[in-house]
DNA sequence: CTCTGGCCTGTAAACGATTACAAGAACGAT
DNA sequence: ATCGTTCTTGTAATCGTTTACAGGCCAGAG
């Protein structure tokens, strides 16, 4: 006794499959018809098959979210926001981890042609020509959370890193710190490059010279710790970090070196993730609007699924600074 | 010019659709046939439709992972492990957040009958009769990460909280702490109940009386902070927390109260998540094997998808203690 | 030379829904 | 009473695969 199909329900209710389908999809039907179908559905415990439905209507009601590393708390924030929007719209979320390699991202984008999801929300950590091409050619709507050349002709939602950097430097100089170092992630990544550029500009705007710039191997706590020494040798009295994980890694090394945060060294993180609030001391962090980016990106994706002909939008979310205890 | 179908490939290659399908699925075919099909596939850029395939073969090659809160770092650890196992086996992972309500979990389990995934890996935060019934009746294989009555007849992988508690209490008494308090999450949850019981047993084994037991509204940082006061009023010299987030919340309150960790109060967390390592001071934490649980659970699920008649297994993962700086 | 058996390959029937189309019923207007 | 309109319902085609089945061909055995 296997799962009942729509045909079984139709038989049990003494009506046609078309009528069952109509009732189930809320199309007009008489009182009596609705009642008979409902009764048969309840009796048999019928649940429509999503696979069959997908094939016929050409939609799976699934969306794919691709991120580089689920362990990064900034993605947790984004994922929460995305989940909320898409599940409210009746979609499920397929979460995929791409890893740091761009070829995996390209493969993922091309694989979307299989049609297992109705859209893709991707936050690429590295971008190259192949990826742009793959995104252009993608069978399903794509929204990029991050920067991608405008010729990709795709909706994007990105942060304003330079402005965020400026907020951080403004705040630090206001606190009287002028020996500012920068702890970046890999500069060959999209966020790494943006932040490096933003940092240089922000210092220039304040007529300052960078004291030190270090690059961690990736955007993780462990990598941050490993290169903290390079930053500290320059004796900065403030360090801006490219994300919160790196900042927390740095603070551990500062504690190990017997330096006080914020008195000896002020620390500013970026992303304003949950970790910023949880770290000790609580981390002053540039809020790059990850929740809002997630939300807006999800909304763009839904809008594009409804109408794929709309002109691509490029949304920039403005940053703000969450001041906590790691700065004076 | 829409997506090519298998019929288009067949036409282009001058063969039948069956032959195309066979070549694509690696069934025996002559050298020449294989070559012609490959060429046509490449030329048209054909990619098989997952929706149609799912309908026919009755599988989607997707698995659902349902957790209560993606913000809890313990789920990040589990998710990583699960992703690794299932993607190696050729499955995609659908991540769903159930929220704290058991009715949502029941709805989720019942919704699996739609067949959008081939299996469900669920870590229920609360369990009731309805959920057990739903799991028993579920159309697709289910593996539970956590405790569920054995009559559910389902594969489970769970932690050994009592043993973990004992490790924590052993360690604290060894450090000379005997005024031990407990900061729990909601006691009406599965992990909350298990840990409360484990804590009581562990203290009894050491002939100790609990100094204080508090219950946070949920397993989050903010909730932990809010009830920390209740714990501290009893002037404990050690506090065991039901998870790392609660422990970090408590440590913030300790700092605010001017108390030193570990000298004034030793703190032990549970889960040994990434946060334990990142917090300051680094948190001594009971490793309940979340990565291993994720891995084993995923393996059980894959095995059951292969053979749904195997007798249910109940795996218990043993805990260990990761000693860091929050204890003397 | 014929027959049997074993490959390949193609035709067509699923899988389980949605939906275009047509047919029938009901009803009001003439 | 007849016609036309509208509303409901049923029949059957369709989505794009996989796969059971059968037919055709060839080789080897008798």
UniProtKB/TrEMBL annotation, chains A, B:
<feature type="domain" description="HTH lacI-type">
    <location>
        <begin position="4"/>
        <end position="57"/>
    </location>
</feature>
<dbReference type="Pfam" id="PF00356">
    <property type="entry name" value="LacI"/>
</dbReference>
<keyword id="KW-0805">Transcription regulation</keyword>
<dbReference type="InterPro" id="IPR028082">
    <property type="entry name" value="Peripla_BP_I"/>
</dbReference>
<keyword id="KW-0238">DNA-binding</keyword>
<dbReference type="InterPro" id="IPR046335">
    <property type="entry name" value="LacI/GalR-like_sensor"/>
</dbReference>
<keyword id="KW-0804">Transcription</keyword>
<dbReference type="Pfam" id="PF13377">
    <property type="entry name" value="Peripla_BP_3"/>
</dbReference>
<dbReference type="InterPro" id="IPR010982">
    <property type="entry name" value="Lambda_DNA-bd_dom_sf"/>
</dbReference>
<dbReference type="InterPro" id="IPR000843">
    <property type="entry name" value="HTH_LacI"/>
</dbReference>
<dbReference type="GO" id="GO:0003677">
    <property type="term" value="F:DNA binding"/>
</dbReference>
<protein>
    <submittedName>
        <fullName>LacI family DNA-binding transcriptional regulator</fullName>
    </submittedName>
</protein>
């Amino acid at each position: 006794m296997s799962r009942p199909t729509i045909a079984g329900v139709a038989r049990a209710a003494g009506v046609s499959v078309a009528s069952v389908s109509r009732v189930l999809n809320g199309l007009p039907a008489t009182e009596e018809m609705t009642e008979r179908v409902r009764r048969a559905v309840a009796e048999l415990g019928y649940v429509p098959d999503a696979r069959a439905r997908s094939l016929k209507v050409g939609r799976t009601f699934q969306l794919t979210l691709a991120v580089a590393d689920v362990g990064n708390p900034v993605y947790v924030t984004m994922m929460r926001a995305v989940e909320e929007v898409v599940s409210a719209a009746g979609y499920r979320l397929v979460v995929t981890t791409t890893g740091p390699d761009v070829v995996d991202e390209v493969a993922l984008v091309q694989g979307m042609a299989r049609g297992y999801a109705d859209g893709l929300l991707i936050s690429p950590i590295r971008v190259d020509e192949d990826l742009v091409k793959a995104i252009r050619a993608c069978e399903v709507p794509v929204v990029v959370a991050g920067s991608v050349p405008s010729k990709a002709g795709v909706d994007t939602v990105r942060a304003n890193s330079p402005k965020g950097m400026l907020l951080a430097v403004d705040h630090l100089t206001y606190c009287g710190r002028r020996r500012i170092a920068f702890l970046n992630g890999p500069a060959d990544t999209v966020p790494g490059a943006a932040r490096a550029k933003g940092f240089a500009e922000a210092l220039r705007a304040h007529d300052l010279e960078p004291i030190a710039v270090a690059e961690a191997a990736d955007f993780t706590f462990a990598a941050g710790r490993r290169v903290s020494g390079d930053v500290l040798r320059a004796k900065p009295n403030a360090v801006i970090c490219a994300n919160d994980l790196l900042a927390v890694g740095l603070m551990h090394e500062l504690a190990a070196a017997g330096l006080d945060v914020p008195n000896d060294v002020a620390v500013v993180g970026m992303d304003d993730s949950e970790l910023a609030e949880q770290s000790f001391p609580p981390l002053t962090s540039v809020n790059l609007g990850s929740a809002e980016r997630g939300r807006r990106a999800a909304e763009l994706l839904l809008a594009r699924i409804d109408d794929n002909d709309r002109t691509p939008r490029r949304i920039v979310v403005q940053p703000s600074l969450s001041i906590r205890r790691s700065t004076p």
